[in-house]
């Protein structure tokens, strides 16, 4: 499947809207990670970026089936591809908003939290770090991402060491998500685009946005910066 089939890209006003397509659970493997990265790279000229998804999943995390079948030497492309995508998002010269239109589990949850803002569907979908239930250790930059994006220790414990499946309302109450949106997938996307448009209207200097973001999340940036497509890095290592 070509990358353009994995993600759809459109402009809505000043907003670059990326949609992970299909009714599946959008498992993150090198092909989908590359497709999302290409879609992010196509945001030149936009004032803000939104990442959304079709169906009942935003993303259900890494593609474990791919890991089981791929030669071991390729496993690093999953980690490298994810780090590169997070680096691209942190280095982007425009505000970013995740439209969590459905379940966001494990690496899918981490991907949502790698955005500046997160709006989430109120009636469907969990924010869920399933690793403790699935018997999967998390790596350092995941821990950093959660530590920096989930500042409340109790919320971090509930997410990582209790495996809570948080609804949007719960995630808003815990300070992890910015807004719970009533209605369907398109209502969540519309709310995310509206927020992105408000941020784009501020007309910020893109380099300042990117440098402030790196300064605000320094430990995550330090663990991903050599993987992304930003000025400091060579071509993505996918
Ligand atoms: C991993 C190998 C990688 C190796 C190489 C790379 C290394 C790189 C670094 C590694 C880092 C490791 C960390 C990351 C690891 C991963 O990502 S591994 C992949 C992990 N992924 C998972 O474990 C998947 C987890 N997902 C699930 O368990 C489920 O899919 C789900 C999210 C819990 C959803 O389950 P599902 O049964 O599909 O749910 P639904 O049917 O939609 O809903 C269940 C019921 O709940 C109701 N409901 C849904 N949303 C809401 C809501 N918001 N409010 C209220 N109720 C809700 C829904 O209606 C259902 O109700 P019933 O119909 O009555 O049952």
Automatic annotation (TrEMBL):
It catalyses: a (3E)-enoyl-CoA = a 4-saturated (2E)-enoyl-CoA; a (3Z)-enoyl-CoA = a 4-saturated (2E)-enoyl-CoA. It comes from the Eukaryota. GO terms for biological process: fatty acid catabolic process. Signal peptide: none annotated. Pathway: Lipid metabolism; fatty acid beta-oxidation. Keywords: Lipid metabolism. The keyword Metal-binding does not apply. The keyword Lipid metabolism applies. Its EC number is 5.3.3.8. GO terms for molecular function: delta(3)-delta(2)-enoyl-CoA isomerase activity. Gene3D superfamilies: 2-enoyl-CoA Hydratase, Chain A, domain 1. Belongs to the enoyl-CoA hydratase/isomerase family. This is Delta(3)-Delta(2)-enoyl-CoA isomerase. It comes from Urochloa decumbens.
